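Work Package 4 report. The design task specified in the project plan requires that, given a folded chain encoded as structure tokens, an amino acid be chosen for each position. We show below one input record used in the internal validation round.
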């Protein structure tokens, strides 16, 4: 009995010393009563050790989670509904860009990077940047060609910005829409994994276009075989990321459908890269070619040289 009293006295003395060092702390009983907010709880265990926790932070986290669950979801016609699709920070965007640049088998972009939180912020600015860089580098190509050949008369082609913007944004929205619709139509064939949502599909396509931005800049090098090499490398990285992401969804389908779908995805991606190369980076557009020289009719009283055909005399 005396030993128990002595142990209790030592525990009380240690708790008193601890409270003296931290005057804002308050003791709690073992029954689990809550202390007032703003104090650090000091609990005495059966082994004589003490633990401290910040109950203010825990209570605030629980209150925020409960408030988030009870908060009504805004309608799709309101601004708050679309605001959630742009609620990403810089680190998340950089992580998703890094994931699109380094595809590898077994690494699903949706599961490892989007994590059921697709965004439209990254795809929107990636498409805008790609369209702007395409138009600028296409004009710079003509400037460099004029320096090599003074007979080329360069004039700024501002319409290329419009063409690039319409092409990129239509591709980044219409192709994912068609792909999502087809996968949703084939949903009954798959058993283990359903199709991605439309926003996830758009986000995957948007981030897959990022690798084309440095490719377009490297196309300024006036070496044709090097330009085609950069284009093939960028196309391989971008298409591989799409294939690795779509494979877990289509592998439950028949082999014919899976092969046809993945082939169509790669083919459309290749057509986009090829169209950008041939339209924005042609060395001499047709409108800059001089008019073909036409043969002017000769007066009837001018004698013809013997080498000209007689048919020109009657013209």
């Amino acid at each position: 009995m005396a030993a128990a009293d002595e142990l209790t006295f030592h525990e009380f003395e240690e708790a008193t010393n601890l409270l003296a060092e931290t005057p804002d702390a308050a003791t709690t009983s073992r029954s689990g009563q809550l202390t007032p907010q703003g104090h650090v709880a000091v609990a005495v265990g059966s082994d004589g050790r003490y633990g401290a926790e910040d109950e203010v932070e825990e209570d605030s986290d629980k209150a925020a989670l409960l408030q988030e669950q009870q908060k009504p979801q805004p309608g799709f016609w309101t601004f708050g509904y679309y605001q959630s699709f742009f609620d990403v920070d810089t680190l998340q965007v950089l992580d998703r860009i890094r994931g699109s640049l380094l595809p590898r088998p077994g690494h699903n972009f949706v599961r490892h990077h989007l994590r059921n939180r697709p965004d439209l912020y990254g795809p929107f600015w990636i498409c805008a940047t790609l369209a702007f860089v395409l138009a600028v580098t296409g004009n710079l190509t003509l400037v460099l060609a004029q320096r090599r050949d003074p007979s080329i008369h360069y004039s700024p082609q501002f319409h290329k910005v419009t063409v690039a913007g319409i092409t990129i944004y239509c591709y980044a929205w219409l192709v994912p829409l068609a792909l999502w619709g087809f996968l949703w139509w084939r949903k009954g064939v798959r058993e283990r994994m359903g199709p991605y949502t439309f926003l996830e599909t758009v986000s995957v396509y948007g981030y897959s276009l990022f690798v084309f931005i440095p490719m377009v800049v490297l196309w300024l090098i006036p070496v044709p075989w090097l330009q085609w090499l950069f284009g093939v490398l960028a196309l391989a990285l971008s298409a591989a990321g799409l294939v690795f992401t779509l494979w877990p969804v289509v592998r439950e389908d028949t082999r014919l459908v899976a092969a046809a779908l993945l082939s169509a995805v790669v083919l459309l991606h290749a057509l986009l890269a090829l169209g950008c190369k041939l339209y924005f980076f042609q060395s001499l557009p047709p409108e800059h070619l001089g008019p073909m020289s036409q043969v002017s009719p000769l007066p009837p009283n001018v004698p013809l040289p013997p080498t000209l055909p007689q048919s020109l005399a009657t013209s």
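Residues 26-58, 285-298, 308-315 have pLDDT under 50 and may be disordered. Validation will be extended to a larger panel in the next phase.
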